[in-house]
Amino acid sequence: MSGILSWLKSNIVIVILAILTIVPLPVAWYLSSGMNKSLREDRQSEAQKALRDINGATVSYALPSLSVDEPPIEDSSPPNSVKTQFYKAEREKREAIISSVKERAVEFNSKGRGVLLEGLFPEPASLASGQLLQPQFAELVVATGGDESTSAFDRLFDRLRINDPVDSETLREQLAARKAALMNQLAPGTAENEMDESTREQIKQQLVEQRLGTYETHARDTSFYANADILPNSVLRVAPLAQPSLSDCFNWQFNYWVIEDVLSALVSANDSFDSTGVGGNVLDGVVKQVESIDFAPLVTISTPQGGNAFEERGFVGGDAEARARADRLNQVDFNSSSRSGSGFVESGTVTGRSSEESSLYDVVPVTVTMIASYEKLPKLFDAIASHNFMTVLDADIYAVDQWEQIEKGFYAGTDHIVRVEMTIETLWLRSWTKEFMPTAVREQLGIPIDELNEDPA
Predict the structure, then answer these.
(1) What is the reported pTM?
(2) Are strands 59-63 and 73-77 parallel, antiparallel or unpaired?
(3) Among residues 64, 156, 251, 413, which one has the fewest Cβ atoms lying within 10 Å of its Cβ?
């Protein structure tokens, strides 16, 4: 025993090292077993949570609607590669359709319109350029009505075949010459009061036929009767002496677009009755004469010139006496807002649209007073609705003295005519109009300056 102790004492280092080598093994095994169990439990808990998360995960799918009547298409479900691919393809297809519809809507609304004077809108290239172009543009949009006028409105009337009635003084001279020729032919050397009754009646009949023939020929060459007097107060009658602002110029340009669109819609209504292929006319069409067009400017501008009392009431052009007489006649009111259950909304129109409620478009209500065929009015409403984004909001109908119209040269054929005061809502998509808007106009309308007009620097 003493020998073992002596050996242990003499080899104490070896003994200690042996103990350190053997003892940790069971301790390590014990500790590692406990740690592995805890680690396994932690990992298992994490795995179960991850599995629960996966099983409970959902993906939200949504497709854009193709119309206001289509309900939203939405789906929330667990991830599915097949479903994801389906919704991706369907979304791309719908977005392509929406993009195509937008392009067609802009094309339909703009009708390929440009500006009347290049280089002016949205901003001139330089101050000197603006000083030259702005007065030039004012001269271009003056409604003069002269035979040699270069006014854009006169050219518009010529293009649409909108004419004055037969000139009464010219017709009177023609009839007088024709009467003299007939008297010389049928009763040479005989005074009119000495002619027999049959001769006087024959001359009278031929003069009536010539007068009606002149009326009919002119009416068939005319879409409908009108001249520059029908245009609203905001259209220049005289070029301003002062330099017009760029906002003024854009307002005049926008006025031209609105007037062009409304007149073209009325022409297209008459064209729907054309069977010859040369265009509609007064005799066959629904619109016989336009007496006035009135609407508010898109943005605030200074009044370019004064107007008489008749103009200040909002009636530009036409015949004041005839309008006053019409107001005294019995009125047939087709105002939809006066009927119960009309569907009108708070904005006061059947559509509920307004410029203040949308940044996509501007709404411009236009009041048109015209002489039209009563029986053909439904065709007029259809033509207006199909010509552009236009809606007839109101139509008031008045009686008309047809013979008095003929006396003034407004021959309308055999249709029963009435005076119609119509309110038309016109819609203008900003996606194309804003490209021409000066900065001041955009600011007044609350349109942000987009990237196209931002300074690249």
Answers:
(1) 0.71
(2) antiparallel
(3) 64
